[in-house]
Amino acid sequence: MDISGYFAITVVVGMIAALALELASADFILLAGLILFMLTGIITPVETFAGFSNRGMLTVAVLFIVSSAISNTGALDGLSRIFLSRKPKGGISSMMLRMMIPISFASAFLNNTPIVVMFVPMIKSWAERFNFSASKFLIPLSYAAIFGGVCTLIGTSTNLVVHGLMIDNNMAGFSMFELAKVGIPCALIGWFYMAFIGKRILPDNRNMAEVVGEKSKEYMIEMKVKKECEFIGKTIQDSGLRNMKNVFLLQIERNEITLGPVSGDEKICENDTLMFAGVTSAVVDLYHIKGLISVEEEKVYNDFRSMRKHLIEVVISSNSPILNQTVKECRFREKYDAGVIAVHRNGERIKSKVGSIKVKAGDVLLLLTKPVFEKRWRNSQDFFLISNVKIVEHKAYHKAYIAAAILLLMILTATFGKYLPKIGGANIGMLQASFAAAILMVLTKCTNYSKARNSIRWDILIIIACALGISKALQNSGAADAIAGSMINMVKFAGPIGILAAVYLLTTIFTEVITNNAAAAMMFPIAFSASSQMSVNPKPFFIAIAIAASASFATPIGYQTNLIVQGAGGYKFRDYLKVGLPLNISFFILAIILIPIFWPF
Q1: Where does residue 120 rank: exposed (0-12), middle (13-18), buried (19+ CB within 10 A)?
Q2: Could you give the CA distance from residue 158 to residue 164 in angstroms, rounded to a whole number?
Q3: Which of 145, 377, 431, 437 is 20 to 30 A (C-alpha) from 425?
Q4: pLDDT grade, residue 559 (50/70/90)?
């Protein structure tokens, strides 16, 4: 390996470190690395941007539109009526299976991110209705989406990335249900583990917050005492603020002096700023007290005066442009036309003022918004809407059957395309089927052009395209051959099985600290080179990469859906580690056993 190989490895290690430390958004980091490889001549300009025309990347883009149309028509709402209608017999285990199985089925054919976003508020309400903590069900919701994703070609973008790379290297790629040979057994193990073992490890976050009566997700909120407040001149005890349900008065700020902990004998004065800790319902109750107004609302009182009940919860995404900026620095109100009135961070009490809190991925913000907010930002890449809001966009339920029929037609066409007449001398594949389905969704008005365009996650597409270019750089520089050679020398005593295990484990480590698509693309040339050096069938290694890159359970940052439920369930990093690590190990063992059986070396 010459100097270009060492340089390529250095750049990749630097990117992994930057991604793990969240120094910038993932798409920016990978794009910067890609351009650096082009400027140093390791890849040509054509190779640099070839990823933007890759079949896998284009298929992912079009499937965003198909998933959006399915969601827009409410075609998945029937799932909620089936498994969220009543409390099954058997307690949490039965409820968990009743939830996970249909979610996995849906995620096998649709993008799992919108599925999880849609079902988070439903699952929370369902659990609370039967007096269970939502934290017992939200991680299983995310995992169930992952279980389904590893079963089909279109179940997750990672599968399509590996599929596209195989086609680029003159291989056949995956068939629609080829991955199910390993994916279905893994899903079965996952369902059993979560329902009967994981349920005991998952936290019961109803018992986490000692000072909050409801013992649920805790927000911090600042309320200003206006002159019309009836509590002015009364003590904390006499005003009843000491004994409010589900909310606790932490401190008072008066004339730039902070008083806390607050004594029950302390009198309330005009213009005091009261800092409360409380659950969502309690925060809403504070708005009903005459003369109390959130500090954020005070700044835009005239604009939001008639909209106090438009409170929306959002989870900050790992690609949000406001990461590591304070609410004030990012000019949140001007940027999104919404005020941040409270912040929640993974069960951690934040004592700073709302405006001075630095935003992190996974934070849950409670926003005061205008009616158009939910419609305008529904498909935002900056955050995910997770609350049951008052203003809900009308769904085209009368189109649900049409959308479902188009989806089924797409799946059948992609599955049996090789038996259909060829187009341009080539068999009909997933790319052609997905494009046709997206066009039909628009023509039949299951969605419109504007919604279709806005549904595309450009950040994910950039990540995929850049990762494909970086994969080529590892090949051109000789770094992939060198890494593969070193890996072979380390585990050659175990033969191809040892290499397969090493590829799987390395992919798992990468996907837990960086994005799953980038992990798959970076591991592809290494696995390809290893199979070539050993003169064995490369397909088992590509199957391992597809499974390992998607099966991210041990950290919230490894997979987008894990991050979505983190704030909603009040989970901490260690919760994922405790519940997810045994699941990672189980998937690893099962995959290493099954892959050589179905795809011999």
Answers
A1: buried
A2: 10
A3: 437
A4: confident
Q: Which of 460, 471, 540 is nearest to 500 (CA)?
A: 540
Query: What type of residue is 278?
Result: G
Helix (H) or strand (E) segment spanning residue 336: helix 332-336
266: which DSSP letter?
P
Residue with tokens 């120094």: 23
Give the helix/strand (H/E) hosting 182. helix 180-193
- How confident is the model at residue 273, as a pLDDT? 87
pLDDT digits (tens, 9 = 90+) for 453-505: 888 878 878 888 888 888 888 888 888 888 888 888 888 788 899 999 999 99
Q: Which residue type sits at 497?
A: I
Answer whether residue 212 shows pLDDT above 50.
no
Which pLDDT band, with edges at 50, 70 and 90, does 287 fall under? low
Q: How far is CA 17 from the centre of its chain?
A: 20
Region of 274 please: left (phi>0), alpha (psi -120 to 50) or beta.
Answer: beta
pLDDT of residue 51: 85
Residue 419: pLDDT above 80?
no
Model confidence pLDDT, tens digit, residues 114-127: 788 778 877 877 77
Task: Tell me: pLDDT of 391 over 60.
Answer: no
Which positions ≥6 away from 53 have C-beta within 8 Å? none
Helix (H) or strand (E) holding 553: none
Alpha carbons 534 and 528: distance in angstroms, whole number:
10
Q: What letter would DSSP give residue 24?
A: S
- How far, in Å, CA of 216 to CA of 198, rounded? 20
Please report the sign of the dihedral spanned by the C-alpha atoms of residue 340, residue 341, residue 347, residue 352: positive
CA distance 391 to 174: 42
Cis peptide upstream of residue 261 (ω within 30 degrees of 0): yes
253 forms beta bridges with 258, 273
Q: Which of 53-67, 200-214, 369-383 ranks highest by mean pLDDT?
A: 53-67
Instruction: Report d(CA 176, CA 166) in Å as an integer.
Output: 14
Total residues found in the chain within this entry: 601
Q: Structure tokens of 500?
A: 């397969």
